[in-house]
Amino acid sequence: MTAPAGSERIELLSAQDLTRTLQRLSSQVLETVEDGEALLLLGIPTRGVQLARVLAKQLETMGGYPLAQGTLDPTFHRDDLQRVGTRMVQATDLPISVEGRDVLLVDDVIFTGRTIRAALEALQAWGRPRRVMLLVMVDRGHRELPIQPDFCGRHVPTRRSETIELRLQDLDGEEGVYLRREQ
């Protein structure tokens, strides 16, 4: 990836660090859920979807059983569309019912908490899970709502003007987590 002119990209997690972090997060998830085979992973577009796929593979390897994995697009439940703008909506894909299940929402970065609030509202439209947990790769602070992840790869205090990029091999041809700041 080529950095936009006038910006700096700082590596926060190398490919090796990302692999170790995913293994740690997977272990934490397996230690927390009572019945891993009944767990449903839901990735939040855009990067959370791919991260959920990678995490599902890791959990399947560690747990020895397949996991249900899908996507949940909360776009139409957002309360800040005028501020953040819209992107192409992805179809919500629930491979099994959420009713009575442990659901793990997966996102790449948590910032204000508004995406997760919208995801929780969207999830309620599909049923009543037994429990909802949140896994993020990076918590960058600046919360506007009292929402915290249950599982977090890394806490990285940022300026509001900075961004965090999760890069995954299948999508980007490289892996790692980067801080991007404008110069």
Shape: globular
| Poorly predicted runs | none
* CATH architectural group: 3-Layer(aba) Sandwich
What's the N-to-C terminus distance? 18 Å
Per the CATH scheme, the topology name is: Rossmann fold
The assigned structural class equals alpha/beta
* Tally of strands: 8
Mean pLDDT, nearest integer? 92
What share of the residues does DSSP label as strand, in percent? Answer: 25-35%
Radius of gyration: 16 Å
**What is the CATH domain class?**
Alpha Beta
Structural account:
The protein is an alpha/beta fold and 183 residues long. The chain contains five helices and eight strands; from the N terminus they run E-H-E-H-E-H-E-H-E-E-E-H-E. Strand 2, helix 2 (47-63) and strand 3 (68-71) form a beta-alpha-beta unit. The longest helix has 18 residues, at 15-32. The mean pLDDT is 92.
SSE layout and pairings?
Layout: E1 7-13, H1 15-32, E2 39-43, H2 47-63, E3 68-71, H3 81-84, E4 102-110, H4 114-124, E5 131-139, E6 151-155, E7 163-167, H5 169-172, E8 176-182
Parallel strand pairs: 2-3, 2-4, 4-5, 5-6
Antiparallel strand pairs: 1-8, 7-8
Helix pairs in contact: 1-2
